[in-house]
Amino acid sequence: MITNQLAIGSLSLGQHPSHALDHKVRVAAQAGFAGIEIVFSDLERFSRTNGLSVFEGASRIRAICDDNGLSILSLAPFENYEGDRSPLIDRLQKATQWIEIARILHAPFLQVPAQYGVDAIDDEDIITRELRQLCDLGSSKRPLVSIAYEPMSWSTCHSTWESSVKLVESVSRENFGLCLDTFHIITKLWADPFAPSGTYPDADNILRDSLRRFVRECPLEKIFFVQLSDGERFDPPFSKDHPWYVEGEAPQFTWSKHARPFPYETELGAYMPVAEVARAWIVETGYKGWVSLEIFDRRMRDEDSKVVEYAALRAMDSWKKLKHELEVTQPKI
Which residue from 9, 19, 79, 238 could staple onto 234, CB 3.0 to 4.6 Å apart? Predict the structure, then answer.
C-alpha cells in the first residue's frame, strides 16, 4: 500500500500571471493534496501584486497554508549556485535570503537543481566546498532548512543519481540530500526526443539496470523527496525546425519547459515509464517520504480562470492511476 504524502508544485497548477498563488494554495488543499512546493516566481508575483515584500508575502502564504491545512514542502528552485563564475559572496547573500524565506514558510527543503551553466566550474572540490557553505547556512539557526539537490538530465556536472550520491557523500552534511525527478532519469537514459521511436537504443535494459543499482546503492535516508512527471513523445521527432527549438539550449531543457504532463496523461502524448521508476524509488526501497507532482505543461499558460482547478483534478487523477499501477501491476521493464 502506497502511503506517501502527496504534494504538488505551485507552477504545476497554472503558469499564467492571473493564476495567483493564494488561489493555488486553496485549490490544492480542496483537491486533497497534503503539501505544496512554493515556486519563488509565484511567491514574488503574489507579493508584488499585494504590495508586500517577498518576506511579508511568504508570511502571508504560510498563514493561508495553515488555514487550509496544507504543508509547504519546499521553496524552489535555487538555480546555478555551485560552481558558478559569479562572486561567491553574492551567491551566498542570495542564498541567505532564500533560506530565510524558506524558514518563514516553514519549508523543510530548499530545492537546488544541479548546476547547468555551460561555462560553470567543474572542479569537484569547489562544488563540494560551496555546497557545504550552503548547507551550513541552512543549519545555522532554527528551523533547519535542508538542501534537496536535484540531478537534472542536462546538468553540467551532476546529471545522474550515481554522481549525485557521490556528491552527497563528499558534502557530508546531515541537511544535504537528493530530490529525485522521474523526468530527469528517463530523459537521461530512456527517452530520446530525436528518435522516431522516442527511445534510445536498448533503453529498457539500460533503465532497468540503473534502477536495480539504485535500489541496492542509494542511501534511503538521503532521498529527501521524489517528484513525478511524464513527457510527451515528439511526433515528428524533435529537430532544429521545431518551433520550440532554441539554439544552444539542451533539448531536454526545451522538452521540460513545454511538454511535461502528469503521469499517465496518454491523451496528451505521455509515454514514459514513470511507474517503473516510481516502483524502484518508492516501493522497492521502502521510501515513505514526500512525493510531489511537478510538471511544466504549456497548457498551464492559458489565462482561463479554471486552469488551476482543472490542473488539480488532472493531478489527482494521475496520482490515482499511478498508485493503482504500483500496488496491483507487475513491472513492465
Answer: 238
